[in-house]
Amino acid sequence: MQFPQSLGRTQLPLFDAFLAQPAVLFDEAPAPLPVDEPDTFSELTLRGAAGNRLHLLAPILRELSDNQDARWLTLIAPPDSLTLNWLRKIGLNRERILILQPRRGQTPLDLACEALRLGRSHTVVSWLQPLHAPARRLLAAAASEGNAQSLNISLT
């Protein structure tokens, strides 16, 4: 269905004032990353209902599982909601994923650091809460040693 347009009407100049001004995105240059925070460690905080958090997490894990690096995507002590069935349903490459649980007497932080240090994983995803600065430094140092990435996901 088509609606006739009046040829005599002109479009409102909604963006003219914006386009006339020079593009300034920042008043000043963004602050550089702190030197003690290497780019081997990242943290993601997801809030809300469990189903919504999983919905947000799915594309991230899918992208990481399709990484061209021949090493593993390793999940350390994932929450119970991340079942094998859910991982299969969202389309993860299950042949490139390791799911590890800490052994008796081992913490998830220790296991994550060990997995990072070994270098057999391109990314190690952990669910450590709360994660304090010393633990962040441990993960970053282990990731640097293993030439890997550490991603901690905080679910609140």
Report on this model:
It is built from five helices and five strands. It has a single domain (40-155), classed as Rossmann fold (3-Layer(aba) Sandwich). Residues 24-33 have low confidence and may be disordered. It has helices at 16-20, 50-65, 84-89, 108-118, 133-146, and strands spanning 41-46, 72-76, 97-100, 121-126, 149-155. Helix 3 links the parallel strand 2 and strand 3 (97-100). It has a five-stranded parallel β-sheet with strand order 1-5-4-2-3, sandwiched between helices. The protein has 156 residues and is of the alpha/beta class. The protein starts with 15 loop residues before the first helix and ends with a strand.
What strand line-up does the widest sheet have?
Answer: 1-5-4-2-3
The oligomerization state is: single chain
Helices, by number, come to 5
CATH architecture field: 3-Layer(aba) Sandwich
Q: Could you name the CATH topology?
A: Rossmann fold
Spatial gap, N to C terminus: 48 Å
- How many distinct folded domains? 1
Percent of residues in helices comes to 25-40%
How many strand units?
5
Please outline the major beta sheet. Answer: 5 strands, parallel
CATH class: Alpha Beta
Computed over alpha carbons, the radius of gyration is 22 Å
The CATH superfamily name is: P-loop containing nucleotide triphosphate hydrolases
Mean pLDDT: 83
Helix/sheet category? alpha/beta
